[in-house]
Structure to design on (358 residues):
């Protein structure tokens, strides 16, 4: 089976596994089992009716937002559980879950049309995800308190289109009480979601590249994780096939472990000389380079 | 054959320093996770996760 097919199956399997409690859709509520405190390695909203686990970004914001109140109550909680989880996944595989597990990544790939007009994202826009991480996920939940002394989950509230798609729309459709409460915020979030869908026709993985705070965190681990991509410069013929195949428009032949790389491994498949490879710990490379002359390239 | 082996060894020794950092981060992550769990943070996350998040829905 081709790697791209395996990856698609993996993405679908993860989306189903992360959201396997289907009876919740008939109860107009959400799954409330005790395993839901487990973080899943993807941006998968925990308010999706069928979600079995917690979204690490939602959990991180909730933990940071409640630090002050917890300290007042005598509990020493600083969000270490979620930070530890993010560090473990990042140090093992970096951004690989973005390419292989994330249901919202799968949603974006399904919408994007490979043929037709494509828009190249300016490089500076990709730094937006670090701003979102710092401002909406860390500083605002930590610093801004309401009258009850609680912080808010600012990213979930103002930005997260995964929450709108997986939780907002299904619950509003299923639950009449919630439907009667919708107002400006809901319209804002639905508008953002449709704006993103519009962008996705022209820009592959637009949300992952410009906004996703989870991708921003794991991207920082790409250069230091146990999973590493490598380029054999002796065999690379600079044909740029890898760059053309890359959904996030990086040049794997120059920077195979770029923080932007979602490790979908499409570049490996595209490389005619098999100069690109990956390793996990000391596992040997999976492909043997083939010699190919530059003249043979299109 | 010997040349290939040498190349492979060279490649492995080249990536080991990165692995040291990754193992350091992995150890730190496990330590943080254990500290968080012993402080009862799992239950805090669970409490948040089993309640319908009105912010996520766009109602909060």
């Amino acid at each position: 089976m081709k790697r791209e097919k395996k990856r698609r199956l993996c993405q679908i399997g993860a989306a189903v596994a992360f959201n396997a409690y289907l009876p919740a859709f008939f109860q107009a509520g959400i799954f409330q089992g005790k395993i839901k405190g487990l973080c899943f390695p993807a941006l998968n909203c925990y308010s999706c009716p069928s979600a079995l686990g917690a979204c690490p970004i939602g959990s991180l914001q909730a933990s940071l937002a409640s630090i002050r109140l917890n300290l007042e109550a005598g509990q020493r909680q600083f969000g270490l559980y979620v930070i530890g989880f993010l560090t473990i996944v990042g140090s093992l595989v970096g951004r690989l879950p973005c390419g292989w597990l994330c249901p919202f990544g799968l949603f974006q790939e399904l919408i994007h049309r490979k043929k037709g007009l494509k828009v190249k994202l300016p490089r500076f826009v990709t730094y937006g995800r670090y701003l979102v991480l710092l401002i909406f996920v860390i500083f605002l939940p930590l610093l801004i308190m309401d009258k009850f002394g609680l912080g808010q989950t600012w990213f979930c509230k103002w930005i997260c289109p995964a929450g709108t798609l997986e939780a907002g729309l299904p619950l509003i459709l299923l639950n009449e009480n919630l439907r009667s409460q919708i107002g400006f915020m809901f319209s804002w979030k639905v508008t953002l979601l449709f704006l993103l869908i519009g962008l996705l026709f022209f820009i592959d993985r637009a949300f992952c590249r410009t906004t996703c705070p989870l991708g921003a965190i794991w991207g920082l681990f790409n250069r230091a994780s146990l999973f590493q991509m490598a380029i054999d410069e002796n065999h690379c013929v600079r044909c740029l096939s890898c760059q053309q195949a890359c959904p996030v428009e990086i040049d794997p032949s120059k920077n195979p472990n770029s923080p932007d790389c979602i490790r979908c491994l499409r570049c490996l498949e595209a490389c005619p000389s098999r100069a690109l490879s990956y390793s996990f710990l000391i596992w040997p490379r999976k492909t043997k380079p083939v010699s190919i002359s530059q003249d043979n390239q299109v | 054959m010997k040349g290939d082996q040498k190349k492979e060894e060279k490649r492995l020794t080249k990536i080991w320093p990165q692995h040291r950092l990754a193992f350091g981060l992995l150890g730190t992550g496990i330590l943080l996770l254990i500290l968080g769990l012993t402080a009862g943070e799992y239950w805090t996350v669970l409490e948040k996760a089993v309640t319908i998040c009105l912010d996520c829905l766009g109602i909060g």
In short: The two ends of chain A are 26 Å apart (CA to CA).
